[in-house]
Write a structure and sequence with these properties.
By secondary structure, this protein is mostly helical. It contains 6 helices and no strands. 75% of the residues lie in helices and 0% in strands.
Length: 121
């Protein structure tokens, strides 16, 4: 009996891990434009912002597209690194007191970190 039970547990664990990784991949696909905005062309960035706004319409305003474009335009003058890790970007926005300029980006980052915290627990 140990063999079949062990195989069942292994299959269940692999299925659970696959589900978690799939969920995390979806989260990454939804939020990644918030830190990859410098690498995306204008059309792709706008489409990602609009898709995000549609998906989270109760939490985020359509001003998100303008905010991300503005952040893109001031990035090199205000941020030391060309490519900031999401945590670094979020912290830098707060350190520079830019959260009032980018309320939707800050909300999105808070939402992302809440989701990540749920995943860890």
């Amino acid at each position: 009996m140990v063999g079949p039970f062990r195989d069942f547990r292994l299959r269940t664990s692999v299925t659970d891990l696959t589900s978690v990784f799939s969920w995390l991949e979806n989260i990454n696909n939804s939020f990644s434009f918030l830190w990859l905005f410098r690498k995306l062309n204008e059309t792709d960035l706008e489409n990602k912002c609009l898709d995000f706004c549609r998906e989270y319409e109760k939490d985020v305003s359509t001003d998100l597209t303008e905010e991300v474009n503005f952040l893109r335009s001031i990035h090199s003058a205000n941020f030391q690194s060309e490519c900031l890790h999401p945590w670094e970007l979020w912290n830098t926005l707060y350190q520079l007191k830019f959260e009032s300029l980018f309320p939707n980006i800050v909300i999105d980052k808070d939402f992302l970190y809440d989701l990540c915290g749920c995943c860890r627990s």
